[in-house]
Amino acid sequence: MTDHVCSPGCNHHSHIGENEKGEFAAGKEKVFSNISKGSIAAAANCRDIAALKANNFEEGKHYYIPAHKDTVTWGYFSYSQPPVVKINSGDFATIETLTHHSGDDYERMIKGDPGAESVFHWTKDEKNIDRRGAGPVDSPIGSGAGVGPHICTGPVYIEDAEPGDVLEVRILDVVQRPSFNPEFAGKAFGSNAAANWGFQYNDLLGGVPREIITVYELDALEQIAWAKAVYNYKWTTQTDPYGVDHATIDYPGVIVNHDTVDKNFDVLKGFRVPVRPHFGTISVAPKEQEVVSTTPPNYNGGNIDNWRIGKGATIFLPVSVAGALFQVGDPHASQGDSELCGTAIECSLTGKFQFVLHKQKDLSGTKLDGLKSPLLETKDEWVVHGFSYANYLSDLEDSNTIYQKSSVDLAMRDAFRKTREFLMTAKGLTEDEAMSLMSIGVDFGITQVVDGNWGVHAIIKKGMFPG
């Protein structure tokens, strides 16, 4: 692998000021000096996130893309969004991602962090990122209406990518973003919101809906492989800097005023939650609409919310627009299948990725032939993703009705059909062989029931196949 190459994504973006360039350059220099060969853990007192070090790759340039107000979009994908960097097939990128739930605990997840502060900055006079979501820009609750809450870094433009191609994204490494507040040195934090869009919201004991925020602590050095709850609190009406009241979690980036909540520190005492960092949202741009919410996953990827999309995994995404326009965000420290209450442990992460473009003309007879949806590969498994609607943007007359029309039954049907196609196309099985193998050897599971377009995945073990 070549040395780091300066690029628009390396803080030489025309809209990033000289002060920010200096901060990021100094941070990267400090981090590189603290990472041993083959290691991803930065020193506990590091004040900038790890720019993950190269490990014995012989080809491809390496780009560094910080999370900053000028390198992210908030709540939407768009085929017209200018890319922050252009790269070639085979290149690498270290990409910072921020959780949109950082405002649940400003002191632990934003304070002192120049990237997070630039993204979340919002006063009565200035809002660094105005549009948050794919909804109306004149919405009374805020521009974008929160129709899509996720902060996504990018887009990354892949040279020569064209509709019909497949983009292979290798997730080489993932690290937690440490708290920049000296009071919490060596620690990272995440937030879990049992929210109004969760499966449980209208089925609580006592019949009174509520939203509960639980803040979790993690070891930023990753020497401890589990998270522990610090405290929780019930969401109370929050007033944003523009004077708008938010009785529920309905608009992202509102900083919670902790004077208005009662913290309960006696929560999940003694419980240890295994950490499995992954990216909830990983995507290329869809072609059907210019501005699309990040909430429902779709054929282009998006908010898949599968905890298996982490270190060592590779995801294949069908390209539908020139350049592919890759984005990643919604970072999670851990999540269970279903993401039942609405969120995971929402925790800022940095990932190192390699991008490999597969041209349409070369796909015939391969496992990628005819790929129309996200396909995940791990060391031991293939994971096929089904959704209530394979492409809700074209399948529904009004794509906004996806939130009322999804079901596990529909997602299971889609997962079944896609798994059958994969086994017949990629593995050469007959339909009868595929039916039998699916029933006796493929594990179907609920990916999520909270993202509008519900998901079911099929886990196909590689060890079943000869050779």
Task: Please indicate the count of domains.
Answer: 2
* Residue share in β-strands: 25-35%
Strands ordered across the widest β-sheet: 1-5-20-7-17-21-22-24-23
The N- to C-terminal Cα distance equals 31 Å
CATH class of the largest domain: Mainly Beta
Average pLDDT: 90
Shape: globular
CATH topology of the largest domain: Jelly Rolls
Please give the share of residues in helix: 10-25%
pLDDT below 50 for ≥5 consecutive residues: which ranges? 1-21, 23-58
Structural summary, described in words:
By secondary structure, this protein is α+β, with helices and mostly antiparallel strands. The chain folds into 2 domains: 8-179 and 274-358, Jelly Rolls; 380-464, Endonuclease I-creI (Roll). The chain is built from 7 helices and 24 strands. It has helices at residues 18-33, 106-109, 114-120, 392-395, 402-405, 408-425, 431-441, and strands spanning 62-65, 72-74, 76-77, 85-87, 92-97, 151-158, 166-176, 187-194, 212-219, 226-234, 238-239, 245-246, 273-274, 278-283, 292-293, 301-302, 314-318, 326-334, 345-346, 349-358, 375-377, 381-387, 442-448, 455-461. A 9-stranded mixed sheet has the order 1-5-20-7-17-21-22-24-23. Helix 6 packs across helix 7.
